[in-house]
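Person: I have long wanted to understand how a fold can be written as tokens. Underneath my words sits a plain record pairing an amino acid chain with its backbone structure tokens. Those tokens are not coordinates but codes from a learned vocabulary of shapes. I should like you to check that the lines agree and flag anything odd. The protein I mean follows directly.
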Amino acid sequence: PMTPSSRPGAATSGMEHPGSHAAFPTAADIETALRAALVPLELEVLDDSHLHAGHAGAREGRHFTVRICSPRFTGLNRLARHRLVYDALAGWMPRGIHALAIDAKAP
């Protein structure tokens, strides 16, 4: 039988199986990435995964809500602010964040 790691072209990053919760980011991981990239004045990261237990996507990653206020957002529209958040979390997006609710404001 073909396992995920034996599929042709499968990544072998040494990370735990993508379906295991250990491979998923925590709220602290998200907070660290956002603080480094966007130097926010205010930041709240909530792990909402428990609200989605049983949802098919819950096996694919975690659900987060991010509330952030950063000077980096000054003069940017909502879409551009969201792009900056997604860019800051790019390393987590394909491997552990299934859903992300964003409330991004400028001071």
Notes: The radius of gyration is 16 Å. Residues 1-21 have pLDDT under 50 and may be disordered. The chain has two helices and three strands.
